[in-house]
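job 3f2a | input accepted
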Amino acid sequence: MTSPLEGRLVVAISSRALFDFEAENRVFEEGDDRAYMQLQLQRLDQPAAPGVAFSLVRKLLGFNDARAQRVEVVILSRNDPVSGMRVFRSATHYGLPIQRGVFTRGAPPWRYLRPLRANLFLSANLDDVRAALDAGVPAAQVYPHAQRASEAHPHEVRIAFDGDAVLFSDEAERVFQAQGLDAFQAHESAKAAQPLPGGPFKPLLQALHRLQQEGTDTMRIRTALVTARSAPAHERAIRTLMDWHIEVDEALFLGGLPKGEFLREFEPDFFFDDQTRHVHSAAEHVPAGHVAAGVAGSVAVG
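job 3f2a | predicted structure (302 res):
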């Protein structure tokens, strides 16, 4: 039987990624889930403030219209069902048409990603993100205190990706880590015509490409590759995207420069990177998430 979610871009998101529940979360982290539940119940009629991924979700939902439901957003949360009521009420307050949710009261929720056919999972919980990545679902640990997205592009979903270990495999990154920059450049120059294997976020980029091709009169997607690569290693990255028949709108080959200021100018609704130092740099300016994958992505955020 075909799922109603088939063919849609499905974003699974935790309540802390969508809304600002940091004050409530401090109560939860004290180990008193009953007090947390009671606090959420007391604030049931108080809409939570937008969280770090709110802009991304709101704009993606803008691809839905009377003709087609192209995007589905599902709450996938360690919250209890009672606290889930406040999540749904907050979504209604902001006009977000979110109807589906899974609330597990502290149990790992990532196992529901496959039946949801999720194209992306955003969570503040690193263990859940790693489990999702291991299951083959593009996932990132959000930085709840990252800068919120600019409101300068209301009809454009802007997403920026790192290359190695995010869009691409960590094949080249492993050469760099083991042998240094010169070996990395030589390796990539020699293999310039050989496409890189796909990384954990290739499926998301493909899904966004399909969504962009369907298009609407009011919303579009703008993507950017923001990478520490520089010439001559740039060519393999470009040729890989060409081999995938996917175009990105902007490509920034920064040769190790800090990414934050460049991302500030691009103004993405979200940026994905495997290295925490780049995510920290980005989070000072834009919403950002850590893709805990690859040889350089195993360090937890702090």
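job 3f2a | The first helix runs from residue 15 to 18.
job 3f2a | closed
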